[in-house]
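Entry 14. Ran structure prediction on the chain below.
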Amino acid sequence: MFRLKFVPEEEADDIRQLLAEHDIPFYETSAGRWQISLAGIWVRDKEQAQKALVLIREDQIKRMSNRPPPTMWDWILGYCQHARQNPAESIFTFISVILVLALTILPFWALLK
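Output, structure tokens:
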């Protein structure tokens, strides 16, 4: 129903409250110790799942309409917060980007010499 990865706790609490207010029973799963599982909020009944999806979609649309668009500074701050919380992932991503750029540019660099 609703993935919890990178979701602020306030927003997750609002979704929990929204489902509780509409008497939709739900359960949660965590990402686990190694962060490889899917953290999320789930509904067992298919009919209630459809109702929950509509409610969550309306809530997300309302959130987006009330929020100003992110600036470049917001993106930089968000990346720095993510890097601080997940240093291994950030380092691996950075090394991967550098490796792909090097493999892409290296053949052309050799042609210029």
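Strands lie at 2-3, 27-29, 40-42. Will compare against last week's run tomorrow.
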